[in-house]
Amino acid sequence: MDTENTKLKAFLFPWLAYGHISPFLELAKKLSDRGFVIDLCSTPINLSFIQKRIPESYSSSIQLVELHLPEFPQLPPHNHTTNGLPLHLNSTLQKALKLAKPNLITILKSRKPDFVIYDVIQLWTYGVASSLNIPSAQFFTSSAAMCSYFVHLYKNCDAEYPFPALHLRDYELERARKLVQRNEKKDEPEEENIMPKDGIMLISTSREMEGKYMDYLSEIIESKILPIGTLVQDPVASGEGSMKIMQWLDNKNELSTVFVSFGSEYFLTKEEREEIAYGLELSQLNFIWVIRFPNGENQNLEEALPQGFLERVGDRGMVVEGWAPQAKILTHSSIGGFVSHCGWNSISESIEFGVPIIAIPMQLDQPMNTKLLIEIGVALEDVRNDNGALHREEIARVMKDVTSGESSKQLRSKVRNLGKNLKSKSVEDMDAAVEELKQLVKKSKIKNGSF
Ligand code: UDP
Q1: I need a surface site. Which of 214, 306, 311, 428 has the fewest CB within 10 A?
Q2: Global ipTM
Q3: CB atoms within 10 A of CB 207
Q4: What are the residue boundaries of the Glycosyltransferase N-terminal domain, all occurrences included (predicted)?
Q5: Pairing of strands 62-66, 37-42
Q6: How far apart are CA 276 and CA 261, in angstroms?
Q7: Which tens digit of pLDDT belongs to each residue from 84-115?
Q8: How far apart are CA 260 and CA 147, in angstroms?
Q9: How far is the C-alpha of 166 from the C-alpha of 143, rounded, in Å?
């Protein structure tokens, strides 16, 4: 271990969503393995969740640092996270985090990190760190494809995006444009929402999957893009309380079962729930389906599903309310396909564990991630109609095709190979990124006269 490294302290500041904190934690572990000391900063509710996922061996190198948000009547502390947060409160949470800037400054002054890695969602952190003479790097927790697509829309709204594989359907493009416009309209000084030039952006990806998108992104944001490999949570650590599910899976045939889950933030509409339920019935496949409702919505699971659904599927299906040990489930040999919204962590886990994807993208980065997966050859999409509605027959058809139909062999062999290649490349990528971070600190120390 490098003695120079042992002195370096990184301050990691993710957005308050589980899908962001989780890859930040995996990054913290990898930095810790390379001799860094880490502060991981989030709200108490998020830290209580993430604490359980830190193995004993990291307890002295990864410190959890609490950030308290200002009080908003509609945002009590149990909502200081996106996990279970009703969707309409998301922008209030962003506002609350930004208003916690003075608390962040106090924390940084007392923790004195050598550098900060912040989530691209809170670009304003760059200004905070710079004002304290602390160098910083951004971390983007989704695909380079998606990031380049959004920056392209933001900067050259009228020009055609250069990669046709990511061509969005009309309703998807309309939503993407709305999202970009919402960011433009943010009621805050423009410089706080601009990506710093000549900076460093870490992305949890690899050139093997996204080389051309990384190059284009680097060109349009005028920053260095450093791939650090996909950051996948440890399936054993994610598997708390999984005994019943794993036993159930043990009794199913190899590759006979689909895992159905739409991440930590999206809540299915009633129509989507119905089409998926009937799709699962029609498919005749075994399934585990995670269903979530927003905090404060006490819905009865049976009533939320089509009448008689649970009896009709019987032991062929398991419905889990709230949260399931996804990474662990995906490692089980009975799983033949993952019906996913295509959040980047879910994709990374599916590729790592060699499971082909049945894509049902919902929002945000998911449509672009889906197109990328199709281009790479590890997923098929449940094609919606022109208005974006799902259809049970199509869901059943794609699920069967991916698990045991004509496409299944090719998809499975592609995803397994890709998973293997990414694993072997990610150590090299992380080492290279660490060297760049060390240079960043060194340059800043020389500039500040403290080297
Ligand atoms: N996850 C899980 N159990 C669940 C739902 C989600 O373990 O029941 C984990 C999943 O394994 C992944 C993360 O939550 O690591 C979701 O991240 P992703 O980027 O896929 O989607 P997001 O939640 O950001 O939409």
Answers
A1: 311
A2: 0.99
A3: 15
A4: 13-220
A5: parallel
A6: 11
A7: 888 888 889 999 999 999 999 999 999 999 99
A8: 26
A9: 12
